[in-house]
Amino acid sequence: MDCLIIGAGPAGLAAAVYLARFRRSVTIIDAGASRAAWIPMSHNVVGFPHGVSGEALLARLREQASQYGAAIRPGEVTRLTPLPGGGFEAQTAEGPVRGERVLLATGGLDVEPDLPGVRDAVRRGLVRYCPICDAYEVIGQRVALIAFGRCRIKEAQLLRAYTTDLTVLTLGQRLDMAPDERQALAEAGIRTLDTPVEKLAVEDGRIAAWHLRDGSRHVFDTIYSALGTRLRSGLATAIGAAADEDGALLVDEHQQTSVPGLFAAGDVVRGLSQISVASGQAAIAATHINRSLPFPRAALP
Fold first, then answer.
1. What is the distance between the alpha carbons of residues 134 and 136, in angstroms, rounded to a whole number?
2. Which of 2, 53, 180, 200 has its CA 20 to 30 A from that of 264?
3. Rounded to the nearest 5 degrees, what angle is found at the Cα of 271, between the Cα atoms of 265 and 274?
4. Which residues are bridge partners to 220 per DSSP?
C-alpha cells in the first residue's frame, strides 16, 4: 500500500483522511489505546462549542477516514523493518503488512499516580492530566497538582492563573526543586504537601478527597497529575530514528523522522501535546507523503 499508519488517535485518523482523499491506499493498524479516548469532555477542540468527548471525536474521525476508503484494522505492530528495495514491513500477530511509507501516530500514556480509584476518577473528570486543555473548567475551584521528581513549577504556575486555592501533592516523594523555585511557589500562594497519601475517595460524585497517612484529610474539587508521559516511540528508535531524552521523536518540517520514509505525528513527536497540533502535524505529514510517492493513476468512477 502507499502508506501504513500505526495508531488511530487524532493524528493517525486525520492523516488517513488526507491520504485517502489524495487517492492513496491507506491502512491503519490500531491497538486501541489512544489517550484521546480518556477525555471525558474537551472544550478546546475547534468547532465543538459545547464540547466533545474523546470517544465521540474518535468515532467521527474513524467514520470520516472510512468514508474515503481508509482501512482500519485492530492489532498491534510489534516490529518495523525497512526493506532493502524501499518501504517498510510491519510485523503483527496476523502477519506482516507492507507500506511504501509509514506514519507513526502511536502517542503515549500518561503516568498515573499509584493510587486506588484513580481510573474511575479520571473517567468522572475529577483527575485530569492537561491544564492547557481544560484548566478553564476549574476556574475558582480547589485544585491539587500531583508532582514529584523533575520540577513541575510551570504546570503549577499555569494552574495558579485559574484558582487561588492550589496545592502541590508530592505523595511523599522527592520534588526536585531549587530553593528559589520553591519560594516562587510560596509567593504565588501555592501550598506544598509532602505527606504520603493512603487513598483517593470520591464523594457525592464530584469531590475528590485525599486521606493522608498522618491522619489529616484534604478535599479538592479537581486534581491534576503531572507525572509525565511514556511515549510509544520504540518502533521508530529501534530502527535508528532520533529522539530526545524523553523518547519524543525528532522530525523535520515535513514530519519526517531521521529514517527516510518514516514519518511521525501527534504526542509521539516532541512539541505541544494537543489534538489540534496533532491534526496539523498529520496534515503536513500526509501532504508530503503524497508528494513523495509516484502520482496515482486516475480511476474513473
1. 5
2. 53
3. 70
4. 208
Range of the domain at 73: 3-109+228-292
Residue whose cell numbers read 485559574: 162
| Chain centre to alpha carbon of residue 88 | 25
Rounded Cα distance, 156 and 198, in Å: 23
**Residue 277: Cβ-neighbour burial (10 angstroms; 0-12, 13-18, 19+):** middle
Task: Give the separation between CA 250 and CA 271, rounded to whole angstroms.
Answer: 9
Same domain for 232 and 214, yes or no, is no
Q: Give the pTM.
A: 0.89
Whether the Cβ atoms of residue 229 and residue 147 lie closer than 8 Å to each other? no
Residue 297 lies in a domain: no
Q: Give the tens place of pLDDT for each residue, 178-206.
A: 888 888 888 999 998 888 887 777 777 55
Q: Is 86 left (phi over 0), alpha (psi -120 to 50) or beta?
A: left
Helix (H) / strand (E) containing 224: strand 222-225
